[in-house]
Recover the amino acids of this structure.
């Protein structure tokens, strides 16, 4: 934040220090509502406090970007230790049907390129994006190769045509779920925005068919945005029968575990995506269909990512749940790979 | 012994320059094209107090994680480093501050906990830092000097990094830190015959 305070003004930006997390997310929503890109960063307890404002972002279709550098929880928990325990709150931590984009970078380079994608998705699809880093990523130093090939025009706001402005519908029903947007004070139209359910004009409306229609519209954006999202990466040996699915900083330990397994003559492959939700589901389905054993390691007690994959793809993986304090040991990964390999050879 | 990858942990308390040690070592390695990953750990309760550690892994090839185990543990304060001995690989090494031996109870002494499968190397860290800087500061540079010799790394990579890191503090600070580095380097050269070689020439696609 101190670096941002120094650097952002040079680019015409601002850094605001707010009194708490609720105020911070409120300021971020206000900035986006006024047509500016903004973000806030927090950890698990802060994300809990932001939950209601994230709901407002969903309902009022105001973009927002929240970085959550996950630490050990719950509550104050382990403030300076790493864990991946906030996936469930990121995915599901909202009242009502409140869809949100969840991304999880796996290394420093993906933090750099991924956060730019997070802003673009938030802006184009008028949605909250929760960017799940973790303490090992947030505090590490790492040599990286930065790719400066960002398409700066890949995502833009949908603006109303002059015809649409004449009878402006801020929440117009569209095929892709995205409605044209103007900022307050922009000439041509006025509209209401609220956390209440609303009609296409933005005025409060509690009719059953309107609620169904608007909920479906808010979810439809998550289908249409898939074409803008990066494909999943498949690494390792494509012919392998042992497949691994991972997320976040655990990916690094998985890759080294796979290298150790390779030295033992065991072939493995990995599917990884910075997109947790939504994601290119066909890639995952094909990958899982090609595996005889699937391993899902992660740094939490419950197996939160494994639960997501089980419910989404109907798989029954071998789960490694590590309620972590330290980054995952590659040896733990290779041990599980070897167990899976010996079961396959029985 | 020849290495193409090394993991080192500095362990101590606030004021020992633990995080700065990691920055200097990692920066120097990255500047010559090595692949580097650093993980800092410190207590949560009060910033500036309690145990802290910096683990630095550097390699001639791409790194994806912190790996498993330590090749070298540097105990800036003995007591706080004892628990970290369990992370040292069999055949690994420990550098302990030999200038404070006798001032601490045996159960609080790092050297008394070193097991036979680990090599212990005494270095009068505090004494040499005092000699170089006239204060307790510079202990981390004494240790880095010793590490430089221990793994046959080129001293220039560290001298350049010290000049860069301390540039904003002026020539005097640069000079005393380079002196601390040299004292650590010379002490190890005198007391521990060279038998380790980090193979810098095997760098694959530079890590920066």
């Amino acid at each position: 934040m101190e670096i941002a305070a120094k650097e952002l003004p040079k680019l015409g930006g601002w850094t605001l220090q707010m009194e708490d997390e609720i105020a911070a997310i409120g300021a971020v929503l206000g900035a986006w509502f006024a047509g500016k890109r903004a973000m806030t960063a927090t950890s698990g307890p802060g994300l809990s406090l932001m939950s209601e404002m994230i709901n407002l972002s969903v309902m009022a279709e105001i973009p927002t970007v929240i970085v959550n550098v996950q630490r050990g929880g719950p509550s104050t928990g382990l403030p300076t230790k790493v864990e991946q325990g906030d996936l469930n709150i990121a995915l599901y931590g909202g009242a009502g049907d409140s869809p949100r984009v969840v991304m999880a970078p796996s290394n420093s380079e993906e933090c750099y390129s991924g956060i730019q994608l997070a802003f673009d998705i938030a802006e184009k699809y008028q949605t909250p994006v929760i960017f799940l880093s973790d303490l090992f990523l947030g505090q590490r130093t790492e040599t990286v190769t930065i790719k400066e090939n960002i398409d700066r025009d890949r995502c833009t706001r949908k603006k109303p045509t002059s015809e649409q402005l004449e009878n402006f519908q801020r929440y117009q029903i569209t095929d892709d779920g995205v409605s044209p947007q103007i900022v307050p004070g922009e000439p041509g139209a006025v509209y209401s925005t609220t956390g209440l359910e609303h009609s296409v004009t933005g005025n409060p409306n509690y009719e059953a068919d309107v609620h169904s229609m608007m909920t479906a519209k808010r979810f439809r954006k998550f289908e249409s945005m898939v074409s803008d999202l990066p494909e999943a990466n498949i690494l390792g040996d494509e012919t392998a029968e042992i497949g691994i699915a991972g997320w976040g900083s655990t990916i690094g330990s998985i890759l080294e575990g796979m290298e150790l397994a390779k030295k033992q003559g065991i072939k493995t492959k990995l599917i990884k995506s910075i997109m947790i939700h939504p994601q290119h589901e066909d890639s995952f389905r094909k990958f899982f269909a090609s595996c005889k054993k699937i391993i899902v390691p992660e740094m939490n007690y419950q197996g939160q990512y494994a639960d997501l994959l089980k419910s989404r793809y109907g798989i029954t993986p071998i789960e490694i749940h590590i309620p972590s304090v330290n980054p995952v040991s590659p040896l733990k990964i290779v041990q599980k790979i070897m167990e899976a390999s010996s079961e396959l050879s029985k | 012994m020849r290495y193409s990858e090394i993991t080192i942990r500095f362990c101590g308390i606030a004021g020992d320059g633990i995080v700065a040690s990691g920055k200097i070592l990692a920066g120097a390695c990255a500047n010559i094209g090595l692949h580097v990953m650093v993980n800092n750990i410190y207590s949560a309760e009060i910033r500036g107090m309690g145990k802290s550690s910096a683990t630095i892994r550097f390699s001639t090839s791409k790194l994806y994680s912190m790996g498993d185990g330590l090749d070298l543990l540097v105990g800036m304060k003995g007591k706080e480093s004892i628990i970290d001995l369990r992370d040292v690989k069999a055949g690994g090494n420990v550098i302990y501050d030999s200038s404070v031996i006798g001032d601490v109870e045996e159960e609080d002494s790092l050297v008394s906990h070193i097991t036979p499968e680990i090599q212990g190397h005494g270095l009068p860290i505090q004494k040499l830092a005092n000699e170089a800087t006239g204060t307790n500061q510079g202990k981390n540079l004494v240790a880095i000097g010793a590490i430089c010799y221990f793994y046959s790394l080129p001293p220039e990579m560290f001298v350049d990094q010290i000049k860069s890191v301390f540039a904003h503090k002026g020539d005097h600070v640069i000079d005393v830190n380079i002196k601390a580095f040299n004292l650590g380097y010379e002490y190890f050269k005198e007391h521990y015959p060279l038998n380790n070689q980090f193979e810098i020439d095997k760098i694959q696609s530079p890590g920066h």
